[in-house]
Amino acid sequence: MRRVLGPLRGAGLVDSRSGVNGGSVLAVDAARVTLQQVWLLLQGDEPVLGLHGPDPACVTGRTVQRTLIALDRTVADAVATALGRFTVRDVLEGAVEAKTLTPGAATETGLP
User: Fold this and answer.
1) Angle at 70 between CA 65 and CA 76, to 5 degrees
2) How far apart (Å, rounded) are the C-alpha atoms in residues 8 and 13?
């Protein structure tokens, strides 16, 4: 929980209080916080695809690694962009289903 709440608290999105009656609450209007903001705070520059470094002696591995890193950034950017369409309020109100991709949108992005 600290790993999640810490960055959110640092960004001013969450207020926390310790003690028996403590807890964490949203510090800003839920309609003003996009899921993209939350994603970027929590994900940072960490790889999305679970990449790990290649064997330094492997020429092929180093080449493939550069390609995978570029692909990882592309995926991370796509996730962040998609999450930018939703707010915390959308999640709380169950409105995310109403804003799903329109038919054909996956085809436009090259996905099956």
Assistant:
1) 120
2) 5
Residue 48 near residue 80, CB atoms below 8 Å:
no
Using CA of residue 87, residue 93, residue 97, residue 98, what is the dihedral sign? negative
pLDDT single digits (tens) 76-112: 999 999 999 999 999 998 887 755 655 445 444 454 4
Are 48 and 39 in contact by the 8 Å Cβ rule? The answer is no
Q: What b/e string do you get for 84-97 counting C-beta neighbours within 10 Å, with b at 16 or more?
A: eebbbebeeeeeee
Give CA separation, 73 vs 1, 63, 91, 102, in Å. 26, 16, 26, 24
Question: Around Cβ 70, how many Cβ atoms within 10 Å?
Answer: 10
Q: Which amino acid is at 64?
A: V
pTM comes to: 0.73
Tokens of 83: 């999450």
